Amino acid sequence: MLDRLEPQSPDALLALIQMHAADERPDKIDLGVGVYRTDEGATPVFGAIKEAERRLVEDQDSKSYLGPEGDTGFVTALMPYAFGENPTMGGRLAGMQTPGGTGAVRLALALGQKAGLKWLHMGTPSWPNHAQIAQDLALEIAPFNHASDDGTANVEAALDAIRGAGAGEAILLHGCCHNPTGIDYTIEEWEALAEAIAESGIFPIIDIAYQGLGHGIEEDAAGYRRVLDKVPEAFIAYSCDKNFGLYRDRVGAFYMLADSADMLDKAQSNANALARASWSMPPDHGAAAVRLVLRDEKLVQNWRGELTAMRERLRKVRDRLAQSGEAGRLDLAPLGTQNGLFSMLPVSKEEVARLRQEHGIYMAGSGRINVAGLTMGNIDKFIRALADVTG
Ligand code: LMR
Predict the structure, then answer these.
(1) Do 269 and 336 reside in the same domain of the chain?
(2) pLDDT for 62-71, tens place per residue?
(3) Same domain, 227 and 86
(4) Distances in Å between the alpha carbon of 384 and those of 61, 121, 330, 362, 376?
(5) Which of 1, 111, 121, 381 is the most buried (most CB within 10 A)?
(6) Are residues 290 and 198 in the same domain?
(7) Are the C-beta atoms of 317 and 98 separated by less than 8 Å?
(8) What are the pLDDT digits (tens) for 161-209?
(9) Peptide bond before 87: cis, by omega within 30 degrees of 0?
(10) What does the alpha-carbon distance between residue 112 and residue 115 come to, in Å, rounded to a whole number?
(11) Would you say the CB of residue 13 lies under 6 angstroms from ligand 1?
(12) How far is the CA of 13 from the centre of ligand 1 (A)?
């Protein structure tokens, strides 16, 4: 039976982790997979999470099963951060815990499909796993250009996709810190999107994986909340992997916005059934730690401080890149106005290979860089290497 399987190539982004680890050059630079790094190149556990974990070890008296919805205290505690002052939107919004943001995206698309979703409109480039999940569910992808040549978001392309959509169609939007371009919609553009979505009836699915890493917790939520304010229904995939540094603990949440409490119950029962058939229950540890952080004022303060320090460091790296202006034929100035961990460089696959082979610099074949991999100690080397391969 297994002989009938076609071999699959490893995920290109995840393969970079191994390639970088095997490189023995001491001055190698990892700009591949999206993890935050300090100026020393480390990805430490948040102090607030460490403290919550200590308390868990002390106080947790059982690891018995929860349920397909996971740690509901975690799910609820996150809602004011994701959705603001009226977190349940009048009893129309509820959620469940998922294994990472990926689990939430998977659930969003699978539940959408169960409700008749056939076409997924998606700005490209996007996080490669978005398309992989959609394809695995045999959904049709309708791509539109996320960005214009001038480096701003191509909101017209998104609006065209929305206005032309019919029944059974959804649009996937990145809540903030667009992966891979770092190019987000302005608040005015979000407003235009919200109105068009409400008018056309296309189903919005919002992926929020980097809240707090762009301009701030509230600032990063302002745009997508405009959409939620205007539409009867939506799905939201949320990841705590980056903004709580819990990558391998797989901490995510899937939220559903419905037109009425009845419809919300129906959506929730279906999401629970899908989760049960997929992973039964999500892993608890990381979500329990986030719950403890969010329920303790002092730990919230610590967490927010750590998140601010991360955001400020990302900004500093971006400013430094932008100030350097040109590197070979590349203009690095636009990186200064982009947000979050990622930006795209217009480099060829050959240039990416040369950066890796000749300079020990690892980045996605698409030209995406994780700016958190740059430090004040390696940024000059990076700029020189870019000038070398593109000059
Ligand atoms: C990334 O885009 O690098 C991250 O979201 C990690 C992942 O799972 O791909």
Answers:
(1) no
(2) 999 999 999 9
(3) yes
(4) 55, 39, 12, 15, 14
(5) 121
(6) yes
(7) no
(8) 999 998 899 999 999 999 999 999 999 999 999 999 999 999 999 999 9
(9) no
(10) 5
(11) yes
(12) 7
- Classify residue 304: in a domain, yes or no: no
Does the Cβ of 101 fall within 6 Å of ligand 1?
A: no
How many A from CA of 33 to the centre of ligand 1? Answer: 5
Atom of ligand 1 nearest to the CA of 100: 8
Answer yes or no: is pLDDT of 76 > 90: yes
238 lines ligand 1 (CB under 6 A): no
Nearest-CA neighbor of 142 among 115, 160, 116, 127?
160
**Which of the 8 DSSP states describes residue 175?**
S
Q: Which atom of ligand 1 is nearest to the CA of 179?
A: 2
Domain boundary among 267, 295, 323: 295
Find out whether the beta carbon of 179 lies less than 6 Å from any atom of ligand 1: yes
Number of domains comprising the chain: 2
Question: Which tens digit of pLDDT belongs to each residue from 17-26?
Answer: 999 999 999 9
Is 54 within a domain? no
Please check whether residues 122 and 7 belong to one and the same domain: no
- Domain membership of residue 33 as a residue range: 2-45+312-390
Contacting residues for 107 by C-beta, under 8 A, at least 6 apart: 98, 237, 254, 271, 274, 275, 278
Using the 3D structure, point to which of 235, 270, 295 is the last residue of a domain.
295
Ligand 1 site-directed mutation target among 127, 132, 248, 251, most atoms within 8 Å of CB: 127
Q: Which atom of ligand 1 lies at the shortest distance from residue 364's CA? A: 3
239 touches ligand 1 (CB under 6 Å)? no
- How far apart, in Å, are the Cα atoms of 200 and each of 5, 163, 169, 211, 256? 41, 6, 10, 27, 19
Residues 272 and 384 in one domain: no
Mean pLDDT throughout 287-306?
98
Contact 13/364 with Cβ under 8 angstroms? yes
340 within a domain of the structure (yes/no) = yes
Is residue 307 one of the residues assigned to a domain? no
Residues 83 and 201 in one domain: yes
**Residue 149 confidence (pLDDT) above 90:** no
CATH of the domain at 24: 3.90.1150.10
Residues recognised as catalytic:
127, 207, 242
Which residue has the CA at smallest separation from atom 1 of ligand 1?
A: 34
CATH number at residue 181: 3.40.640.10
